[in-house]
Amino acid sequence: MNIYIENHEFHYELENLTRIFLPNDKITVHKNAVEFEKPFIKAIRTIGNKNSELIVEVYFDDFDKSEKIIITNNIPDYENECERQFAVMIFKLLQEYTGVNPPWGILTGVRPIKLFRNLKNQIGTEETERYFKEKLLVSDKKTALSKETEKNESKIIELSKKDSFSLYVSVPFCPSRCAYCSFVSQSVEKTKHLMEPYTDLLCKEIAKTAGIATKVNLKLESVYIGGGTPTALTPTQLNKIIKAISKDFNLSDCREFTVEAGRPDTVNDEMLIMLHENGIDRISINPQTLNDTVLENIGRRHTARQSIEAFELARKHGFTHVNMDLIVGLPGDSFESFQNTLNQICNLEPESITIHTLAKKRSAELTASKLEILRKDSQTADEMMAFAQDKLKNMYIPYYLYRQSRMVGNLENIGFSKPGFESFYNIFVMDETHTILACGAGGVTKLKEFGTSRLERIFNFKYPYEYISRFDEIQNRKSGIMDFYKNIM
Questions:
Q1: What is the bridge-based pairing of β-strands 397-402 and 413-417?
Q2: Measured CA distances, 53 to 4, 72, 106, 253 (Å)
Q3: What is the pLDDT of residue 365?
Q4: Residues 273 and 247: beta-carbon distance below 8 Å
Q5: Do 400 and 285 share a structural domain?
Q6: Is residue 489 part of a domain?
Q7: Fewer CB in 10 Å around end: N or C, the chain?
């Protein structure tokens, strides 16, 4: 798909919006072209003395339609309104062509709840709801979900103070790589030889980071060890990392310490005893589905029964806050199969359940047959998510929500919890409430100036072999934390 723009710079938003409808297409943006290669979308602005004309044309072999609007040049927020109007016209034309009805309207950002909150603080809740529905074309259900989630999030966000921060520690190893995975995790089979040196260096980075946090007087609110699958390490290796965090950081004000035990085939007595003895108060066991055929489709080397057994084992060893992740839209999964999965998970009564939507990787361009598949997949995923929300509403509350590119049906990832079991880290990181200090391969430190939108990032190298071979560079980059806080103190 080609997007041709003229006399404006709205290419990023229009490209992301187009990808909602054409998630498998390669999209190329052209500026001020004189020739047009089909299929294409044109978005052209002509600015007159008093008014501007915005024209959008969408052309496929069997579809050629256009929309036009005139807006006044001196309206408040002229540029943003032009961008919004272009998005609305493209949305409506692609909606007509594909037959797909994205429930989040023209919203393409990953943080719709943060947007809802910012608007609410400016214009109030009722006007924000109206803006979501009328200006952004968000469905009634997603608007209501945004309102409820924002309300639940706010209670946690208000706990964060000027000197608050959270810690993320990355363990990028997994028993095997899932077919849908977009993280930097590596399979244990290929990288087992790296796990011990990685663990040793990670402990050094933890010590360095803790020293800096102490110097700039930061208070630790939450810890999250993720990946990957941290429990793919040996209990001894993971114990070493947790002990380093406990020794080097002041945990006296820490509200939550989470360890991802995501793959049920890494959960055993020795691992759980070690985690419990270290005071880990939240773990995540992630079956994704309880359909063995679907598990095989996505490259998971465990069974549905192992997921249930892992949860029961966690209960046996005293864990009172267990999260479980599921995914809607997995290949080979049906609505009935998803219903069965969620019913079984609810029978276990975990303290929180996170429902993810599959984010598809790019493949071939959209053909007529694939367009029909897109419509079907979108409808099925929407039915799954609707069932989940209806099923969970009596016992759980939605407490955080985010979105990704190329999600099936343009849906969302949403965390549900029993009241009082919301994950502090999930809310803090998604809202960008306060600084997140990150250690490990693929970690991204996000430095937040309290009370402002200012955010600076420090990136670690992505892969374990890079992390190990260029570790000194990573340590040197930590000086950026000191520089950031010197400038705002």
A1: antiparallel
A2: 16, 9, 20, 57
A3: 42
A4: no
A5: yes
A6: no
A7: C
User: Which residue type is seen at 383?
Assistant: E
Clarify whether residues 74 and 184 are in a common domain. no
Whether the predicted pLDDT of 182 surpasses 60: no
Residues 196 and 280 in one domain: yes
With 70 as the cut, is the pLDDT of residue 280 above it? yes
Take residue 451 and report the two structure tokens written for it. 């009370």
Q: Are residues 84 and 166 in the same domain?
A: no
Q: What percentage of residues in the chain have a pLDDT greater than 70?
A: 94
- What contacts 187, CB < 8 A, 6 or more positions away? 173, 174, 175, 176, 177
**Encoding tokens for residue 411?**
């849906």
Verify that 62 and 168 share a domain, yes or no: no
Distances (CA, A) of 297 to 23, 77, 178, 408, 471: 21, 49, 9, 17, 37
Q: What is the mean pLDDT of the chain?
A: 93
pLDDT at 180 over 70: no
In a domain, 143, yes or no: no
8 Å CB contact between 202 and 168: no
Going by pLDDT thresholds of 50, 70 and 90, the confidence category of residue 5 is very high
Print the domain residue range for 34. Answer: 1-99
